[in-house]
Amino acid sequence: MIFGATGDLTHRKLVPALYNLAVDGELPPGVKILGFARRDKSDEEFRSGLEELNRKVSRNGHDEELWSGFVRNIHYHQSEFTDADGYKRLSERLDEIDRERGGKGNRLFYIASAPEFFDDILEQLKAAGLSKAAKGCWSRVIVEKPFGTDLATAQHLNQVVNRTFEEKDTYRIDHYLGKETAQNLMVLRFANSIFEPLWNSRYIDQIQITCSENLGMEGGRGGYYDKAGALRDMVQNHLLQLLSLVAMEPPTDLSADGVRDEKVKVIRSLRQWDSPEKVAQNVVRAQYVAGHVDGKSVPGYREEDRVDPESMTEAYVAVRLMIDTWRWSGVPFYIRMGKQLPKKATEISVHFKSPPCVLFNALPGGVPGGNVLVIRIQPDEGISLRMVSKIPGTSLRLEPVKMDFRYATSFGKASPEAYERLLLDAMAGDATLFARRDEVEEAWRFIDHIEHAWHQSENPPPMAEFVAGTWGPKEADDLLKEDGHEWRRL
Amino acid sequence: MHPELGREVPIGGIDKELRQLWAEDDARTNASLVNLAVYSEKPGSLVENSEAMRELTREHACRALLVGIDRSVEETSITAWITAHCHLSHGQKSVCCEQLSFALTGRATGRLRNTVFAHLNSDLPLILWWQGELSPIFSERFYSLIDRLVYDSAEWANPEESFPKIMEAMEFSSRLVPQDLSWTRSFQFRVSVAALFDDPVAQNALSAVASVEIRYHPSSRMAALQLLAWLVVQANWRDGLELDLADKRQSKGAKSYSFETAAGSAVRATLVADENSAPLGSLVIRAGDVSVEVIREAGSSHLLRRVVAPGHVTESPGPVDSDNPVGSVGEQLSRGGKNSLYVKILPRFQQLLAD
Lengths: 490, 355
What we know:
The structure holds 2 protein chains of 2 kinds. Chain A has helices spanning 8-23, 43-57, 64-71, 84-101, 118-127, 151-164, 180-190, 222-247, 256-268, 276-282, 407-410, 418-428, 437-455, 474-481, and strands spanning 2-3, 33-37, 74-78, 107-111, 139-143, 170-172, 204-212, 283-289, 291-293, 296-298, 316-322, 332-338, 345-352, 372-378, 382-390, 398-406, 463-467. Chain A is an alpha/beta fold. In chain A, the strands form 3 sheets. Chain A has a 9-stranded mixed sheet with strand order 16-15-14-13-7-12-11-8-17, sandwiched between helices. A 6-stranded parallel sheet of chain A has the order 3-2-1-4-5-6, covered by helices on one side. A two-stranded antiparallel sheet of chain A has the order 9-10. Chain B has helices at 14-23, 45-59, 109-115, 140-143, 159-172, 181-184, 187-196, 200-205, 221-235, 245-248, 325-335, 340-354, and strands spanning 7-9, 28-30, 34-40, 62-70, 77-89, 93-105, 126-130, 148-151, 177-180, 211-216, 238-239, 254-260, 266-273, 280-287, 290-295, 302-309, 312-319.
């Protein structure tokens, strides 16, 4: 059951993901998909809208025959999210489907509606008895972001969720964790003996996590974004999740809780920027002014559609984080996220310390920079390693070279979309790639200090500006310059 | 419109189109060691530079970015093309380098940085070959991205005004390495001079150098002056007594300079411009009855290196520097490094230039 079935996420991501799972033979044959939403629609109208988008975005293309078999299992259920009768009818319909198909009664609820309906949907599911599975069956819920807007709302939502579903049946989705390279992070670190011995403050100088987008507030997204901002929209969830995968200690096993226990320790160990002064020293927020992206003129953030002309919401944020553990003592982690930057890219770069240079420092040019290991999350998922090499010839001169591994070309088959993997994991009951309650709350605890300094203190740190299409404000460059570092050029 | 530049692509879809380009043929290998951008404001330069890139990619795997700008047109526009230059490696595998070409009109500084340089191959150095005069586009926002800046000071109408811009850029960006093709053109002369002083006869005469004469083609004045600056810096000569006007301009096309060795003896240097000379035609250093000479006849494909002393003549041929800018850029790419010797002589060279 997908709640919010007429929304963009369902059309662009969820149904194409289910279709691709079906094409790859991964979707269990008895699966029925029910879209739950408020608009009045027939099954046919609903299916036709899904087909239109699937043709555009499906990873495996759109095969008429496969689609016609797949789409027969998609239905539409009209109801208000607060209407108890709608849920009662849903329950009856699900029972009927089980009877028809000989299903046991396993149910997966995906809450992809607007966040203000999360509470209502969960409470109504409980009231209709849908959150409790029959004996020998399961009933699970996937909750989309945003999981709260601050610590208090996240705690409240967690209470509502846990009143309705058991924690083991709750899947807080963060689609970044479903991306192939994010999953490969643990493999890279713990299945290759060359990296883990170097993965600490003795050898690593700094780590940067960048998420840049070359879009602004097109398609009316200014309304949501202006209430959220870059820090809450991206850093609290996706980027802190990536940080925890990069920085965590090896888990004792690969169970969901084994991994999540280690991830949450990283978030707990973040040094808290708990005063406006500390926030000013370690965090830069900014808005873009009019500029050019991809050769086109774009407006400034405050001129965007549905954005308050006096908005104090950040469209760019850069944060210096310190993790107070033995492994990471003294190693800065820099996170930056921004809209209207020159290109779309998400990556983690691990910058190793420069060698002592006793041998090559005296050469003309010296050693051109240290080793950099880059884990590209999107696009072109892959991993590259920058090394220094001698230029062929009689003289001894050094230049950086790059070893590059790309998922798209190395394995001869495309990586599944993040939602494919995550939907399948939720059906299989594997919560490893989903956030646990304590992870979400600890992340909000860290973020809340910054939000409070920006919006509730008497002397809030200033809002910087940058020209759209550039790599962010000068203040963000200065943040790294203080440590003798600079942002990696993507 | 420009078949030589490949397929015209929408600016927002360049990465996607590049992926498609590679997906079309599994037999090709994409190779890249540097980002090599070529900037020009000369009409028709994109096609010329695409041809230059075809040559350069034979030896230097890179992602090529060609930028052609027409600032005289008021309307702002940007058009892009992609293609690949492929060469057989060891007669078997086809190794290819991507080329992205951009034609811009109107005010371009911001768009150049935001749009063109958003397509760099990350982690690899950006080498920018700037062709022609340093226009207002050459600003802080632009050069802060560059690792190596290749230019040809011989193309500048007022090098006295352009060199301070290079110095300013170096001051702003500590990683920027300047590479002047005029300096590249004097490489084999410098190597030859250094090699000749391995000869014990020449070495013994070094402290007694009394005169230097450099003959050059008028189009290569920068190379000649830089060669002189190199000699002055490496030999540790100070400025000598002020020459009078007659001494400074001995004859049409010649200019003299006065220096003093560490031991206090005078050295006179003369630069002679000669329409019939090779770009750098000759360098003759005289010390008493010893003469150290590097000579290149116009059109010759080798240098003559010679030490002449009473009862002692040694001669050997040497290779010449490329006269063609593409060849000079290729040589620079092969050498890499920080070009620290050039940086070292730049202040002295600027003094000589202003003299």
